[in-house]
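Each field is set out as follows.
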Amino acid sequence: MRLQVREQGDEVHIEVSGVAGRHQRVLQALTECSRGICGQSGETSLHPQDVSVRAGTDEIRIRLKGRRGLRFEALAIYRCMRHALVEERVAPIASAAALPAA
């Protein structure tokens, strides 16, 4: 899975390729990040009117545009989504590999 997050003016563009049917998990990760589950507390700042989603077979593109002066932090979104999508997937595999064979 490849994750790319960039700022373009007052928008943040998120592109995830290699999702292979995990589109819903990507959207769930974005929702979790907006709620602050990935390390920052607070209420969700993400609303349906802030989000534009285009999905293909193996990719998803998300555009975030804040309302009334609200700006999204591309670096914070990248770090949180990387943690939610990549690091959490690697941790259980690494833990299972560390178990002794019975």
